[in-house]
Design brief:
The protein has 400 residues and is of the alpha+beta class. 15% of the residues lie in helices and 34% in strands. The longest helix is centred in the middle third of the chain and has 21 residues, at 154-174.
Length: 400
């Protein structure tokens, strides 16, 4: 046995926004519990027990895959490590927490903080030495107090808050630049009373209107049924969309005057000016989202794309597959995000619809990539995506 002392398993290991308690098997991010279990949880425990030191693949095999075949172990370790990195928002090629040493193993490279450490105030040695001013933190460093019944809602409230933060930045950009001296306003959108927000995964749970003025989102009632709500960002409350109980996916029409929802196996278009809706078509199996392209809708499902007239009709399957499509301003090109098996990463690509030979790779991403037009440079904009746990905006000219 090594003579080097190791941290007590019952003590919290704090790194970045995370706090990990090996004894309880609980991982928290910003004080909110993160779902992690099984082998990814055991890998995190092994790595954080000895930060900075290499844990070899053979050690993982003896500890976690004892008795398994070599092939099962290799596949299992790679899959568990990928899952752990997804939870931490980490990346193998730009690691912040877990470094890969090819052919050897893995090393935890983030600094682990002492949660019990007390702040030390250093006083000047002489009266004439001025004490530098320390700016207060942007948020009060106080533990969050939250009702027990809503604990599982908080990650999705935060997700909605991120969307609102992005929309606020957009609205600020389109107004004339002026320094008013006012404090930055930050706010979040909570679900209506009796409802909870829920993660999207393969469904689109919220969508910002094209002008950045409204947010449409689904929320779940106590019976587990979703309903669609619309929140004007200059209003205090969200309002339910009539006849939307049971809705699933949501996306906006380009003019921002109507919403498309999937509900009860059909794709419907709702007008914000009245209470009416139009049934466009039956939804394909495992639908992801759709985009309006001229008189037609381009529907994205997990294994196929479909074209259907926006006025209604029967979806027609396409030969090409364009997951999570977004129509660019010229109305001809489509931005989409697909998985690249050789690199085992997702890539944002652009193609002129109907001409697969025009496909271009744009960038590597860990999420769906979306185009956001610039408010200061007409005709250009940004590709917004997540990479290695960071939200990025990459300059992009759709004309070229």
């Amino acid at each position: 046995m090594s003579g080097q002392a190791t941290p007590s398993p019952s003590r919290q290991r704090v790194f970045g926004p995370f706090a990990f308690d090996e004894a309880s098997g609980e991982l928290q991010k910003h004080g909110i519990r993160v779902r992690l279990q099984g082998q990814p949880l055991q890998i995190l425990a092994a790595l954080t027990r000895q930060p900075g030191l290499v844990v070899t693949r053979d050690e993982f095999r003896q500890q976690l895959w004892n008795g398994s075949t070599f092939v099962d172990f290799e596949h299992g370790l790679n899959a568990a490590m990928n899952r752990l990195r997804q939870v931490l928002g980490d990346s193998a090629d730009q690691p912040r927490y877990i470094e890969t040493l090819p052919g050897r193993g893995y090393r935890f490279i983030a600094a682990i903080q002492d949660p019990d450490a007390k702040p030390v105030l250093v006083m000047p040695s002489a009266p004439e030495s001025p004490v530098p001013e320390v700016s207060p933190p942007p948020f009060p460093l106080l533990p969050a107090v939250r009702p027990a019944g809503r604990r599982s809602w908080l990650p999705w409230m935060i997700a909605a808050g991120v969307a609102i933060g992005l929309s606020g930045a957009y609205l600020a950009a389109v107004r004339p630049l002026a320094n008013s001296g006012a404090a930055t306003l930050r706010f979040s959108i909570s679900p209506p009373e009796g409802f909870a927000l829920e993660a999207g995964s393969s469904r689109q749970t919220f969508a910002l209107s094209p002008d950045g003025a409204r947010l449409a989102f689904s929320a779940m009632n106590a019976s587990g049924i979703f309903q669609m709500f619309v929140r004007d960002l200059d209003a205090l409350d969200s309002r339910p969309l009539r006849d939307s109980l049971g809705s699933y996916h949501v996306f906006w029409a380009p003019d921002g005057r109507s919403l498309f929802l999937t509900l009860g196996g059909s794709l419907r278009r709702y007008s914000l000016q009245g209470d009416s809706y139009q049934v466009v078509c039956d939804t394909p199996a495992l639908m992801l989202t759709a985009a309006l392209m001229g008189p037609n809708l381009l529907i994205s499902a997990r294994s196929a794309n479909f074209i259907v007239p926006a006025s209604g009709g029967t979806p027609t399957a396409m030969k090409e597959l364009y997951p999570w499509p977004q129509v660019l301003p010229d109305g001809k090109h489509v931005l989409y995000t697909g998985f690249d098996p050789p690199s085992r990463h997702h890539r944002a690509r652009v193609v002129e619809l109907g001409k697969p030979e025009t496909t271009k790779d744009l960038l590597e991403t860990d999420s769906r990539a979306m185009y956001a037009p610039s408010a200061t440079k007409p005709g250009s904009g940004y590709l917004v995506y997540v990479r290695a746990g960071n939200l990025l905006a990459h300059p992009f000219d759709p004309r070229s």
